[in-house]
Structures are given as C-alpha cells and as structure tokens.
Write a structure and sequence with these properties.
This protein has 1008 residues and is α+β, with helices and mostly antiparallel strands. Helices cover 40% and strands 21% of the residues.
Length: 1008
C-alpha cells in the first residue's frame, strides 16, 4: 500500500489536508485508519501568548464537536486578559471532513496510544483544558488496486454567522460544499500558476526536473520579493495612498494634478506626465513606487523583527500592494524579477539608492512604506546595529548592469538628474581614531536624531526619514553622486593587500563569519569593487557630459583619495611593507572621517563639479590598486583568499591569511580580472580542494575540520606552569579564580573564561592582591599562552563553532549557485577565436554542468534529502537539505536558467544564443505548452519533436532544431522572418514593454 497526503489552501474554506490510501496488491485489504490534525489553536491566542504562556492558554481551551455534522469547534472560554473585567471570545477555529464517514471522531490527542495498541476508542464530543485535535477513525476495505480518499478542512477566526452557515451546509448540502471546495482549490492552483507564469516560471522541455526546479525557483523568488500587479499598469488610488504616506505636503500640493490622471495608468505614461510637473519630489516618489504584491516578510529568522507573513489582501478584500525584507535579500530577488519586468528596473535602483545614507551605507530593512534600521534592545541578545558592505556593491551593480543592458540612455540621463535623496539612519560612524582604538565598536546610535526623525515623520510622512535641509526639504543628488559615494566609502576602508576593512559592526555576505568584524578585511567586497569600477569606466566612457555635480564635501573626499592613491602608486611595483600599509590606511581613514563629520553637521550642502576626465583617471588608478591586492591574495594552490585577519599598532598593519573559502573564489571569478584559461584553472583547483564535498558532489563554504574533544581543550602546557611563579603560588594557596589543578597534575584555566578578556579581567583583579608583582611580570605570558591554546586570533565566528547553516561541514546552496552564475558569466563573455579557446569553452561548460548537477536537480531524494526540484538553504554534514525556499539561491538559478536558454540582452537588443543548452532538453514527443497570456488567460501551443518552449516577459518562445539560425516573429496578423539570432530594437522593446503585439516567437537553433 501507499499513503499520500498533501496540504492545500482554499481562499473560501481555509487549510485543506488531503489523504489518499492506495492498495497496490491484487488482494483485498481491510485496514483501520486514524487520521487528522492536532495542536489546533483557537481564536484569541497570539504567537507571543502561545510561546510564553502555552500552559495558561490550555486552561482556557474548549473543544466541541457538533455530532450530527462532524464539525469541530475550538475556542476559548473567554479571552485571556489579566483584568477584572468580562472579555467574551466570540470566534472559533472550525474543522470538518469528508470522505471518511466515521462515527468515531476525536477532538483531542488523548486516545492516540489506545489506537496504536489496538484498544477501544471512545468518541469525544466536548473537552475542556485540552489542546485541540481532530481525528477520524474508520475500518476501510480496499479491493485489489482500490483506493480511498478523504480530507480535513480547517479555518480560523469564524464567527457565529459563518459557523451556523457551515454547519447547515454540512447537514443539508454537503456534496455541493465538497464540489465548491474542489473548485476553489483548483482556482487557487490556477492563480498560483498564473503568478508564476507572469514571472516566466512556466517552461516545457524534455528535462522535467529542470522545468519543475525553475517553477519552484520562480515561485520562491516572487514569494520573497513580490510580483508586479497588472503588468505595467498602476491603480491611481493605490498610488495616491503611497504618495500620501510618503510626503503629505507633496500629496496636498499635487492633489489637483493627481485628480486629472485616469484611474488606471501605465507606468511609462505616469512618469512622462509627472516629469511635466517639474516637482522633483513627486517625480522621485512616483519613480520608486513599486506595485508589488504576494511578497512575504522574510530575512534571517533570528532577527527580532522577522515574522513570516504573506499579506495579499486589504481588509476590504482588495489586493494589497506590499513588500518587506532586509535590503540585502530583497534586491537580489528583484534582480531576477527585473528580467521579466525590465521597465521597473530603474524603479528598483531608485528604491535602492534612496535607501542609502549620505555616509555611503544602507539600512537593514526595506519595505513598501520606506526604510527601517536596527536598534539595540537590551533584553534581546540578537539585537544590534551596524552596516553590511558587500551586498551594497554587488546587488546594486547587478541592477545597474541590467539597466544598462536594456536602456543605456535612461541611465545616462540619471547621471545628471537630481532626483535621488539620502536615508537619514540615526547611526553615526565614529572618528578614525576611535575606530582604530576599537574597530568592533564603531557606530554610535544617535537617540536625539532618532527622536527628531520620529517627529518629522509625524509632520511630513515617510520622507521624514530622509536627510532634510534647513527648509525641511530632502537634500537631492544625481546618480553620479550616489555611484561615487558608494565607491569612496569602500576606499576609505581599503587596506592594500588585505581587502576592505570590516569595521561597521556587521560581517559581509556570510553572517556566520561575524567574529571577523573589526579584526578582518574582505577580499570578497574588493573583488566586487573591481567589477563595479569596470562598469563605471564603461559607463562614463560613453557619456557626452564633461562635468558632474556632487556635494562639495564629496568632491573634497574625491580629491583627497585621488591624491593619496597618486602619492603611493609607486609602491605597487615593489613589496608593500606593513608600515606603508599603515600609512595608506591612516590617510584614507582620516579622509573618510573628515567627510562624515562634515556631512553629519551640515543641513545645507553646496555643490562642486567632478570633471569626467578626472573621474576616468581616478577609476583607472583605483583599478591598479584593486588588481594589485587581488593578485597578492592568490594562494599557492591557485585559489584566492576570501578574508584576511589584520593586526594594527601605531606603526604597522600586519596581514594574516585565513583558510580557503568558497566566497573568495566566486568573487574573483565575478571580478573580471581572470581570463577564461585562468578561470578554468581556478575551477579545476577548487574541485581538487578540501572545499569539495564528495558525498554531495558540491562545495562547502570552507573545509570541514574536527574541533578538539572536550578533554583535549584547556590544558595549560606543563612547561609554562613549571616556569610560572604565579601559577605555583596560586595552586599552593588554593586560589581558584585564575586556574585549577586536576587530579592528574594538569592545570586548566577557570571554566568561566570565554575569551582572553575574561582572563585579563581575572589578572587585573589579582593585581590588587598579594600577587600583584607576579601578575605584572607574567601578565603578557599568560595572554600569550591563552592565545596559543585557543587560537582566538583566527576565530571567524559561528562558522567555526557550529555545524549547520553556514557552519562546519555545511554546503550553503546560495553560494554554490553564485559559483554557477560566475562560471556562466565567464563562459558567455569569452571570445572564441582559436582552437584553444574552444577547448577552454568546452571544459568550462563541463564544469558548469558539474556544479549544476551538485545543486540537486539530478540527485535522488535519498542523496538530496528532499524533493530535488525544490531549492533549500543548506546541507549540513550530518543530514539532508534544510530550510526549503529560505535562500537567495533561487535568484541565481533563475539567471542561470536564462543563460542556459541563451537569453541575452545588450544595448536594448534581445538575442537567442543557447551555447549552454543541452540536446536532452528538446522534446522526444509532441506535447502541449500551457502558459498565461498578458491578460491572464490560459493559452496553448502545440509543440513537436525536437522543440521546447518557455516564456520571456510572458511572450512564448519556441526553440526548434534547425539547419541554421533563424527567427520567426508571429505578430497579431503578420509574420516576420529574421536571419540570425537577434531581434531588432523595436521588437525587443515591444517584448520588454509587454505590449502584447507579439503572439509568439519561433527560434531555429542551428548547429553549435
């Protein structure tokens, strides 16, 4: 026999658990079944109440069964309040069933063991003070190859009217009720497929695993980042609400203009009309407006603000436009979404940049209602403040690259147009001297400024969170200023040969390496900076403007950093000393601190001009420094360092290398520094390295290693004890606060010590006792022996001390997919000129599919640990994959899928060049491809052998094996034949704009 069950969700009826029992044999089988759900919560219990006072809530619970209909009711006898006043509970959770006409129904879990032991079970009709459950028991007879199906349906927050109506239908029209349920479930499935189809998640190829995985990737991507409503059309009512929340003054001033707009308007037309007002704040707010829905609140589950939620409807039943997430996650999901909705890319960039601060960073959280930042909560050990860094560079850059590929002209205009603003996060980065003194405590939370911001929000709206001038008007800037400040901020923390100093209280991409904060430098960020600089050089090379307006203090910072780089340029040709390194870091750091001090203090900023030639020269010089550091971080095994440890004193900065990490290899591949052959050598070295995990055919974040056994830790070398007069005297006197001696004669530090600071505190306390002179003489030797025993200097954080997530032995699938993306980018950017080039390309393709196979699509459920068609967060060493969908991997895999299908966009031209596409993808038999058109209706295309199909911007594309490359564009009433593999600009724009003029496209795929 087999038993199947599934959870489905009905708009009208709630949560639906379906069960299916099937007899696979030729014999008749009789079986006793007990099935249902348990731990049912009644109305009126909040999550905090359940977590903190669940035993108290049990005392209020009441479970009832309407015996005639089998309807279960789960309620509180009264609302749980600590006040001497009545508080009725007038709603309940309901559960009912179909398919098993059992006379024995249970409304608790009390008798489950009776069933397991074959004992009698008594029906339950009313119970008090028990957690709710709903179980059916029945003896089922299954004929040969027969089956039985049933379902359990539960719904929340039902009032008397709803419950009486449901009970009536169960008694009188149950068959109609079940049919209505089935129809609603089918409608829900259709709506879900429609959402996925809107974001190009539907494909039809012979590789069903890849098709299913792409569907899952797109589904999780839009659940994290949202999906755009109504194509590119905007509901005026929703826009007005957003504007009123953003800036009440602008909303009031522009009320007449807004009243003249149609109730439904395209994004393109809206921006055109708004630009006619010359109201920069109105333009900004409308440009960054993103009518997204279906986005779940997401991020690190440990964060105090993060609670899973998908809010799809407003209280009145209308669709709710809303998104929320930490900014380092949500923008990566928007990158993939932007491929299907490219006309919103500039809005995404605007949202990103308007959330950046005037000192060059981004806050923690982005929502449709603005930005938010972390605060210190004394009772929550997870709460903290600080800024991440590498996400800021690479995620912004990916959006910029996407924008440039689709429409470089718009990006060029924004370089001079002053429609951007600054987020006023009440963090104040300390002076350079304070950062050097304690690089782990570098940010002050300005409580006074936070209060001022709160008052401005009350007065102005969400724009109260922006940096305002003396007239309470947002300080504005152009795209050039935003791009330059992002780069300069990183350069003020540049440590030559080591990376970007991690001194803003937060780690980089890998949150588990949190102990590197202050003590480390990131080569990951530096590699992405190189790609960023290459992009800026290409962008400004094409511009006709000779000067760009920026705030005066930024121009001063630009000039100072440029002069520093010029002064020390000669050192790039010789061995850089630790003293040289310290000199450069001191000058860069002080310049950054001076800039911050100036812009924190000023509310009215005057402008200066940056010459384009000066900017190009600066970018070229910066590139030399970045390349020098990357090459210095090449390891003997051909891999590259990801993070480095730094030791700083008044004279020098020393750099210590850490073990190899996957992040560094991905970053250097993405940097563009390596040629294809060097990239291939890196991938070959990576496959041979200790990062590779054989049993999963994939790559860990770093090599696994065994931590010492407990009894092998914390034993002070006897030679040290023999030399220490202090130790001998403490032991002789029975003093136990510093060290203890065991029965075998070995000595150990006190078990309460967590790190060297605890040791130092104990030594300081001893200084005031009779042991003071001995402590003074031996203080340093105790610190040294402690470090030699525990090696805390090389401590990276949780990554070296736990065994899941990004821990020891773990594969973090997002980073593996980043590796896949980086490999794909190398492949697609390489010119094929010589026979050796073709051989390199072939080997890179083999590496691409080796990495891809390890991700899970081609694995068995036993090896993968779950259904291989679903993305998961990580695979620890001791079990299968964990946390479905909780990963940015889905974005990378969507982009890789487009690369496999050969989708390319350059200078606004869409091309189809599938050099990565495998022959096995083409259909072996005729099939029908179902997709959703731009109006939301299901359409079908008949496919033949040696064809496959997908949608791009919801336009169906059919690939067919052909003798040469040719494109047939089927329009509404006409057909265009195009030689080659590229569309023209007009057709490409039509697709990107989702105009609906193209019915479908047929692409003949010639020999590779």
């Amino acid at each position: 026999m087999t038993f199947h069950y599934s959870w489905q969700f009905s708009e009208k009826f709630g949560f639906v658990k379906k069960s299916h029992l099937e007899n696979l044999s030729t014999d008749r089988i009789t079986i006793r079944v007990l099935d249902g759900i348990q731990n049912i919560l009644p109305y009126g219990i909040s999550s905090n109440l359940q977590l903190e006072r669940s035993n108290l809530t049990n005392a209020y619970k009441k479970n009832e069964l309407e015996f005639a209909t089998g309807l279960g009711l789960y309620l509180l006898s009264a609302m749980i309040v600590d006040k001497a006043e009545p508080s009725e509970s007038l709603k309940a959770t309901t559960v009912w069933s179909y398919g098993l006409e059992s006379k024995v129904k249970l409304i608790s879990s009390r008798q489950l063991d009776h069933f397991r032991l074959g004992q009698n079970i008594e029906p339950e009709q009313e119970l008090r003070a028990w957690p709710g459950a709903y179980f059916l028991m029945e003896d089922i007879v299954l004929e040969a190859h027969g089956s039985k199906k049933w379902g359990v349906i539960s719904e929340l927050n039902q009032d008397h009217t709803a419950i009486v109506g449901l009970n009536y239908r169960l008694s009188n029209t149950k068959d109609e009720l079940i049919a209505e349920l089935a129809h609603d479930l089918k409608q829900g499935q259709r709506e879900l497929r429609k959402l996925v189809g809107m974001s190009d998640g539907l494909q039809c190829t012979s590789d069903q695993s890849s098709v299913a995985r792409h569907f899952s990737n797109v589904l999780f991507n839009i659940m994290r980042g949202g999906i755009f409503d109504n194509q590119y059309h905007i509901e005026l009512k929703d826009l007005k609400g957003y504007l009123a929340q953003s800036n009440r003054i602008v909303s009031k001033i522009q009320s007449k203009f807004l009243s003249q707009l149609p109730d439904r308007i395209s994004n393109h037309e809206l921006i055109e009309r708004v630009r006619g007002t010359n109201d920069l704040d109105l333009i900004r707010i409308c440009v960054e407006y993103l009518p997204l829905f279906f986005s779940r609140r997401h991020g690190d589950p440990s964060r105090p603000w993060n609670k899973f939620s998908i809010e799809t409807k407003n209280p009145n039943g209308s669709r709710k436009h809303y998104y929320e997430g930490n900014w380092r996650d949500i923008f990566q999901n928007w990158e993939a979404l932007g491929r299907s909705f490219p006309r919103y890319i500039h809005s995404m960039i605007t949202k990103f940049l308007n959330a950046s601060t005037i000192d060059g960073y981004n806050p923690y959280k982005i929502t449709s209602l603005g930005i938010d930042w972390e605060i210190i909560e004394p009772d929550d050990p997870w709460s903290f403040i600080g800024y991440w860094g590498d996400h800021q560079i690479i995620y912004l850059l990916k959006l910029l690259e996407l924008a440039q590929a689709h429409n470089q002209q718009t990006l060029s205009e924004l370089l001079v147009e002053r429609i951007y603003v600054y987020a006023n996060v009440p963090y104040r980065i300390k002076s350079y001297e304070e950062i050097v003194f304690n690089p782990q405590d570098t940010i002050h939370f300005d409580h006074l400024e936070a209060q001022v911001i709160s008052e401005r929000i009350t007065l102005l709206g969400l724009d109260g969170k922006l940096v305002l001038d003396s007239k309470n008007t947002p300080i504005r800037c152009n795209l050039t200023e935003k791009l330059v400040i992002t780069l300069l901020t990183k350069l003020t923390n540049f440590i030559p040969g080591a990376g970007i100093w991690l001194n803003t209280q937060r780690p980089e991409w890998n949150d588990a390496n949190n102990a590197l904060v202050g003590n480390g430098a990131s080569m990951v960020t530096l590699n992405y900076m190189r790609r960023y600089v290459v992009f800026l050089m290409d962008l400004y090379q094409e511009q006709h403007h000779h000067e760009y307006e920026v705030n005066h203090f930024l121009k001063v910072l630009f000039d100072e950093i440029n002069q520093i780089l010029v002064t020390y340029e000669g050192l790039l040709k010789v061995a850089l000393t630790n003293r040289n390194r310290k000199d450069i870091v001191d000058e860069l750091g002080k310049s950054g601190a001076s800039y911050r001090q100036a812009v924190y203090a000023q509310r009215d900023l005057r402008s200066s001009l940056i010459d384009r030639n000066d900017l190009m020269g600066f970018l070229g010089l910066t590139m030399k420094y970045l390349d020098h550091s990357i090459l210095e971080n090449r390891r003997a095994d051909g891999l590259y360092h990801s993070y480095n440890l730094i030791s700083m004193d008044s004279e020098e900065i020393k750099v210590d290398r850490l073990y190899e990490m996957l992040e560094g290899q991905v970053a250097v591949l993405s940097s563009g520094l390596l040629n294809p052959r060097e990239s291939l050598e890196l991938l070959e070295g990576l496959h041979k390295s200790s990062i590779y995990r054989q049993n999963q055919s994939s790559y860990m974040l770093y090599p696994d290693r065994l931590l010492p056994r407990f009894l092998d830790k914390n034993t002070i070398p006897r030679v040290f004890i023999d030399k220490s007069t202090l130790a001998k005297k403490l032991i002789r006197n029975g003093h136990l606060n510093l060290l203890l001696k065991d029965i075998e004669g070995n000595c150990h530090f006190a078990g309460t010590f967590k790190n060297v600071n605890d040791l130092k505190e104990a030594l300081e306390q001893l200084k005031a006792t009779e042991y003071g002179d001995l402590v003074a003489r031996e203080y340093d030797s105790y610190v040294e022996v402690f470090e030699s025993m525990f090696h805390h200097k090389a401590f990276t954080g949780r990554s070296g001390t736990f065994f899941g997530y990004e821990g020891l032995g773990s594969i973090y699938w997002h980073m593996v997919s980043k590796l896949l993306l980086a490999t794909q980018e190398v492949l697609l950017s390489m010119p094929i000129i010589t026979t050796q080039d073709r051989q390199t390309q072939k080997k890179l393709i083999n590496h691409y599919y080796q990495i891809r196979a390890g991700i899970g699509i081609d694995k068995s459920p036993n090896q993968y640990g779950a259904f291989p068609t679903d993305p998961y967060s990580h695979t620890p060493a001791h079990k299968g994959v964990q946390q479905p969908g909780m990963t940015g991997q889905v974005k990378e895999d969507i982009l890789n899928r487009w690369a496999e299908l050969g989708i390319g966009i350059k200078k606004g031209i869409l091309s189809f060049k599938p050099i990565l596409l495998r022959q096995i993808e083409f259909l072996k038999n005729d099939e029908v491809f179902e997709y959703f058109d731009l109006t939301g209706n299901v359409q079908k295309l008949n496919l033949s052998q040696n064809e496959l199909a997908f949608t791009y911007c919801q336009v169906p594309v059919i690939y067919k094996v052909a003798s040469f490359s040719k494109i047939k564009v089927v329009l509404k009433g006409a057909v265009l034949d195009i030689e080659g593999s590229e569309l023209n600009a007009a057709l490409s724009t039509s697709i990107f704009s989702r105009e609906g003029s193209i019915d479908h496209i047929v692409v003949g795929i010639g020999p590779k």
